[in-house]
Amino acid sequence: MAKKPISFMLNGHKVETLVEPRELLIHVIREQLNQTGSHIGCETSHCGACTVDLNGRSVKSCTVLAVQAEGGTVMTVEGLPKNGALHPLQEAFTQEHGLQCGYCTPGMLVRAYRFLQENPNPTEEQIRFGMSGNLCRCTGYMNIVKAVQSAAKKMQAAGGK
Amino acid sequence: MIPGTFEYHAPSTVDEAIHMLGEYGDEAKLLAGGHSLLPMMKLRFAEPGHLIDLNRVLALKGIREQGGMIHIGAMTTENELIASELLRKKCPLIPEAARLIADPQVRNCGTIGGDIAHGDPGNDHPAIMLATEASFVLRGRGGERVVPADGFFLGTYSTQLAADEILTEIRVPSVPPGSGYAYCKLKRKTGDFATAAAAVQLQLDGKTCKKIVIALTNAGPTALKAKDAAAVLTGKTIDDKLIEQAAQKAMAICDPAEDLRGDREYKTHMAGEMTRRAIRQALARAQGK
């Protein structure tokens, strides 16, 4: 099958590549564009480890075709730090012990980023509902919830970023 | 897991998509949110030679009110249904059900039209469409037809949608004053299909139940309209005894498939319990409680 040229913005940079229509976005991001932060967990759209931000919405990139990103804007965990400094969410996950093995963390961070853009001052219940598409098998979620709460406070104090 | 090979098409209008459907015939599949079709393609349960992606057909998106009816574009996502103030006021059963579907990421992709047209009895919108007495606009090369949800679902993965047609719009009547609604869904975890679920929409006239529609998810080869159960309650003042009778009537039509969620007896029992809960909650809402 003929490959198709696609181009999109990835973490603020324009990328161009050739893909087969059947290739999944997660595979292209990791294997062709070498951004390996986003993980492949279940590959069946359950676990959320492959969560990326596509055109301002959280999606599971194992269930999106790479050709569907054509002309779009994608952000992965590599796009979170600014000028070499960790994003407040990354700092909060460290300080609140929001991770143990770390496998789910890139998906958690990218999802939490979009969630806080949509709801900057969430309740615990809203955080649990908003983060329910990301599974973690280590933490029991308590510290992930705390990390999102802590980051929300810091980001609000800093004016939303 | 990667799907088999196919040719990818991204039309920007409905006419273009219909033309492609005509051209590629049985080889073609329409791609909506992709959270049923792409997993099926990964497993080779579906191997279309041509994939027609509807995500760039902007005319298939959006929610608007027209002549007492709410028109929902088939490519409107679950999260857009949840966010709609219009639906919350005029068809509250739809966003209530959408909140119980999958998870936030999947709801950003999954669409109401895809959920309906897929014909999976485990999907939630079919029962909601029966309960709200919705109708569907189907467009093909021969023009457009509007069919009621009741009768649209023929069997598992089988609907009245013809091979060269696209479900373009869902039309739902606005709820009248004195209405109540509820969708009660038993699931093992976030993202799971229903073990059993019941949708209820009713209308009170004083204390009397003027009208009620009850529909069940994942309790048979299609979503089921529980007509006998509704007949028990229509024209009556709903009490516990009548709710029990209605639940028994609902259970009598259940024909669920055994799977990891439970055997037929358990699922039928749960469909009965979801029916009881949904009637009680819809009644309480209609009474303003």
Short account of what is shown:
The complex is a heterodimer of chains A (161) and B (289). Chain A is α+β, with helices and mostly antiparallel strands and 161 residues long. Chain A is built from five helices and five strands.
Kindly describe this structure.
- Chain A is an alpha+beta fold and 161 residues long.
- Chain A folds into two domains: 4-79, Beta-grasp domain (Ubiquitin-like (UB roll)), CATH 3.10.20.30; 88-157, [2Fe-2S]-binding domain (DNA polymerase, domain 1, Orthogonal Bundle), CATH 1.10.150.
- Helix content of chain A is 33%, strand content 16%.
- Chain A has helices at residues 25-32, 88-95, 105-118, 124-130, 142-157, and strands at 4-10, 13-19, 51-54, 57-60, 73-75.
- Chain A has a five-stranded mixed sheet, sandwiched between helices.
- In chain A, α2 packs across α5.
- Chain A starts with a strand and ends with a helix.
- The mean pLDDT of chain A is 96.
- Chain B is an alpha+beta fold.
- Chain B has three domains: 7-52, Uridine Diphospho-n-acetylenolpyruvylglucosamine Reductase, domain 2 (2-Layer Sandwich); 62-173, Uridine Diphospho-n-acetylenolpyruvylglucosamine Reductase, domain 3 (2-Layer Sandwich); 179-283, 2-Layer Sandwich (Enolase-like, domain 1).
- Chain B is 34% helix and 26% strand.
- Chain B contains eleven helices and 14 strands.
- In chain B, strands 4-5-10-6-7 form a five-stranded antiparallel sheet. A four-stranded antiparallel sheet of chain B has the order 11-12-13-14.
- In chain B, α9 packs antiparallel against α10 (240-252) and α10 packs antiparallel against α11 (264-286).
- The radius of gyration of chain B is 19 Å and the shape is globular.
- Chain B starts with 6 loop residues before the first strand and ends with a helix.
- At the A-B interface, β4 of A face α2 and α6 of B.
Low-confidence stretches of chain A: none
Which series of helices and strands of chain A comes N to C?
A: EEHEEEHHHH
The CATH topology of the largest domain in chain A: Ubiquitin-like (UB roll)
* Strand segment tally of chain A: 5
> In the CATH classification, which architecture of the largest domain in chain B applies?
2-Layer Sandwich
Instruction: Write down how many β-strands of chain B occur, each being a DSSP E stretch of 2 or more residues.
Output: 14
Give the overall average pLDDT of chain B.
97
